[in-house]
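Predicting holo structure, magnesium ion bound.
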Amino acid sequence: MSMSGKTPTANFIRHIIDKYLDSGKHGDRITTRFPPEPNGYLHIGHAKSICLNFGIAEDYSNASCNLRFDDTNPSKENVDFVDAIMEDVRWLGYQWNEPARYTSNYFEQLYEFAVHLIKQNKAYICSLSAEQMRLNRGTLTEAGTNSPGRNRTVEENLALFSAMRNGKFKDGEHVLRAKIDMASPNINLRDPVLYRIMHHQHHQTKDTWCIYPMYDYSHPLADALEEITHSLCTLEFEDHRPLYDWVIDNVGITHHPRQIEFARLALEHTVMSKRKLNELVTQQYVNGWDDPRMPTIAGLRRRGYTPESIRDFCDRIGITKVDTVIEMGVLENCIREDLDSNAPRAMCVLKPLRVLLENYPTDKVEQLNASRHPKNAAMGTRKLPFSRELFIDQDDFREQASKKYKRLVTGGEVRLRNAYVIKCEQVIKDENGNIIELRCRYDENTLGKNPEGRKVKGVIHWVSANHSVKAQVKLYDRLFLDTDPNIINQKGKLKDQLNPSSLQVLENCYVEPSVANAKQGDRFQFEREGYFCIDKDSSPDALIINRTVTLRDTWAKIEQKPIS
Ligand code: ATP
Ligand code: MG
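Done. Tokens:
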């Protein structure tokens, strides 16, 4: 049973696993793995892979999932990324088979397998430059050219490979290549590189190694050594599968995992490649990997997303072999629905406008009752202090407006949510003509009921000026204006694609007292304004609050409009 208590959605990979089990030929154990490279934070695309792999481990009876750091490029990796990845997987609610694995755990074995390949005359040392190697690779229509290294003897190759390991050469001087077929129609089989020289300290193995295996070599072997049954990866690896199988078959391991490919997740208005996310961070276009505008798990968490909403999202988009780009609204609807059911209600005035109730006693304070959730009585009630001086939102008042405007106008009435009906008597302005205060009267017979003989349709939110707490509120919008910043970015710069108003900081917001002691990560629906989350930098003296999502999907409307 999944965390949400829902039955997992079937998909073609689960069908393959069902058949594998039903055949009775393989026993009943299922092992999957999630193999991130610790060269960045996990993003929502990784969440799709996590939910698939760990979801299978959760739902099948004798199943588990390994977390394996694919740490074969020390120049881009570090332990901070390792730690962040572990935190994110745990936060999503998953447990890996302890301990976490590292491809670097297998470096010695991988080296021995490479020696085995050399001895079988299935691998050789190539001394071409990267550029020469690229030119010799051929094209989709032309065969490649054999490297001179192909003619080296086994003894020569063994000696060179050992010297490579022992640090006798500089970066790029030699590589170890598989001897497969330079004329193969599959370019991945044209003598792919298995090892390269890289004099770089490794976050796990320190200075032990100066040669590092390539992904296409280390990945199938790590899968095989861990006795993974189903190795699930994204579609771009489909053409690598013959190589995946070649490597396992030729090093002489008996366990052979099955690689199955599925479509990667792409989301509108965002980038998902770690290289680009890294650029956003290092160029400081955003404030770190966990900036709430980032599509990273850490960013979404800070923004106010729940693990349940992300798992629900992954469930809704499903697993197929067809690449699609998902609308941001699909992700947003998942958190909206979750918070609609689970977030307590509160009131927050984002752009305060002072209201003075002329007929309300100066020293009087009432503690009005309000529910924390309209549909969930179990969440209890809260107290709303009501007094002579209030704040309402500037957007909820117009000096004059058409009948369609259901909020407060000069001389008009409006209901204050959970409180009384008020009437605006007078507008006070400063010398520049800016409105600074509204003088109003309240009707004391209207608490929880309509005034006699007339209906007041508009309802607005408010807080008591002297009992509310000041907060900084951050409103977020799409990080990129274009639906697909990836395409345009191939020519232009990432920077030119950024939405200049993706972050709006409001310094003078006021929240009702029930929010004052909220802890980092607590979530609320601020009535009429959206869903919000207390930021991790927030403190009781200086509240910082992120808007997770608006109450309704405002972009859907914008995007339906024809471009003028
Ligand atoms: P990037 O290209 O962004 O660096 P990656 O695939 O190199 O991503 P890894 O850390 O190697 O990143 O990914 C770990 C696992 O997550 C892989 O199995 C990969 O297939 C999967 N994954 C990465 N991005 C996506 C995505 N957008 N949708 C689904 N799965 C993904
Ligand atoms: Mg990768």
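Residues 18 and 60 are 9 Å apart (CA to CA).
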